[in-house]
Design brief:
Strand 2 (about 45) and strand 3 (about 55) form a beta hairpin. The chain has one domain (about 5-195): Glutaredoxin. The strands form two sheets. A five-stranded mixed beta sheet has the order 1-7-6-4-5, with helices on one face. A two-stranded antiparallel sheet has the order 2-3. Helix content is about 30%, strand content about 15%. The protein has helices at about 5-20, 80-90, 110-120, 140-145, 150-155, 190-195, and strands at about 30, 45, 55, 65-70, 95-100, 165-170, 175-180. The longest helix is centred in the first third of the chain and has 17 residues, at about 5-20.
Length: about 200
């Protein structure tokens, strides 16, 4: 069930997204030089919130969208948009959410609470990783270390600006784009990059 705060955030999501587009939350970065990763994306792994480990080699030949998420954020409505994207492109796009409590403590729940919240309120069927740290520090999840270190991914140093920052990996394991939190998963630029 949604709390009153979560219902209010869902209601105001379109306004939050529009206002955010004129700030750093509307950032879009692209691998314009087509830089190759220095460390293979497919060597990475993540533990899902059900305890299963996912070896990223299973994503070969697919695009992958990695998103840091939170249940009590103005952008939480993007769970519905991510689910829509998953349903539309699931055969050629894998989506993996990384719940994190890094921004204004907007994800205080445990893995079970987060999973239940996502399924009940947004019908989420794409995988959720175990709650982790996505910001640059010693506790940063190895996947986000790769995403934010040019010595690993080949070009990008940009850490998530807020919850619902999105990193797109192409079919060959190359980081192709960063989309800030205000860029909807159904935004034309993101959709064009996925197709």
């Amino acid at each position: 069930m949604e709390t009153l705060q979560q219902k209010i955030l869902r209601f105001f999501y379109p306004v939050v997204r529009k206002l955010g587009k004129i700030s750093k939350n509307g950032t879009i970065l692209e691998n314009k030089k087509n830089s190759e990763p220095k460390k293979s994306f497919y060597e990475l792994k993540a533990t899902l919130n059900n305890g299963q480990e996912t070896d990223f080699s299973v994503f070969k030949g697919k695009k992958v969208l990695l998103v840091n998420t939170a249940s009590n954020c103005g952008y939480t409505g993007q769970y519905a948009e991510l689910q829509s994207l998953h349903e539309k492109f699931g055969d050629k796009l894998a989506i993996l959410a990384f719940p994190a409590n890094d921004f204004a403590e907007q994800e205080k729940g445990d893995d079970k609470d987060i999973s239940q919240f996502c399924q009940v309120n947004y019908g989420v069927t794409f995988p959720l990783a175990k709650k982790s740290v996505v910001l640059k520090n010693e506790a940063q999840h190895p996947v986000f270390k790769w995403l934010t270190d040019s010595k690993a991914n080949g070009w990008n140093e940009h850490a998530p600006d807020w919850n619902f920052s999105k990193y797109l990996i192409d079919e060959k394991g190359k980081l192709s784009h960063y989309f800030g939190p205000s860029i909807s998963p159904l935004d034309d630029q993101l959709l064009h990059s996925v197709k």
